[in-house]
Amino acid sequence: MGKVKQEINLINLVERYGNEGKCQEYLEELRWPDGVICPRCNSESISRIQKPKVFECNACRYQFSVKSGTIFHDSHIPLWKWFATTYLMTESKKGISANQVKRTINVSYKTAWYLCHRIRNAMTDASPKPLCETVEVDETYVGGKAKGKGHGYKGNKAVVVGATQRDGETRLQVVGGNDRETLHDFIHKYTAPDTKAIYTDDWPAYRGIGDHDTIHETVNHSAEEWVRGNIHTNTVEGVWALLKRSIIGSYHKVSVKHLDSYLDELEWRYNNRDNPYLFRDTLRKLIRAENLTYSELVSI
Description:
It is a single chain. The protein is α+β, with helices and mostly antiparallel strands. The chain has 2 domains: 10-31 and 70-123 and 272-299, no CATH class; 134-254, 2-Layer Sandwich (Nucleotidyltransferase, domain 5). Helix content is 38%, strand content 15%. Strands 6-5-4-7-8 form a 5-stranded mixed sheet, sandwiched between helices. Strands 1-2-3 form a 3-stranded antiparallel sheet, with no helix packed on it. β5 (158-165) and β6 form a beta hairpin. α5 packs across α8 (259-271). It is elongated, with a radius of gyration of 22 Å.
């Protein structure tokens, strides 16, 4: 199946949302599809006052704009730059670096880095649906080379576990290790109890994950076995390929401190790979997202 055609591209992004007024109109449409509602008292009795794009609640007299109470409220960045960065992050299959955003929308590196992280934070799915049917699970290691250590050294690397439902969604998380308890906890957290099949490699810590209604099959990678009938982990390994190409080709390096945020971004793009309205739906998440302050971000 070919790439899903998105309802927005770079040309009509500029045409539709090239100034603050057009961006505000679209946010108003997304935030209040059935008419403006007061964010303080939820009254639907609203008046537009003289100031551009400012509303007044006839019940509590609160004056507000479409940005009030949202992630955009305290931002000095024009909305069109928010829109452009959101588009670039959702359109770029391998992600886009803060340095590239800095050059593209003409802001400082610190502003671009903070902007990207606020958008990533909004992409986080706080309560994801459990995966089911056939699920592949695998772990990978993220981190640079350690001087004086051999090729297989992993002491300086973060462990990332992924579970991917075939023809479905993926769940990614930084974990504390690749031991049995950690991997089983991850699998139980993100898969439904009645999952039909879980496929992994032959790492011993995965043993015992199956039960009376969930089969567990493995492929023996250490013996160069990659596929046995329908049993393989190629789908989740495809997610790892996207992650590694993002780090090597776009970000160049990612701190362990913020690695989960980059995983959330990859997860959101992957899970919406067949969604032609990804840009719109990401803006909706931005409207609903809690604000992430710069001090909170750097203290994580």
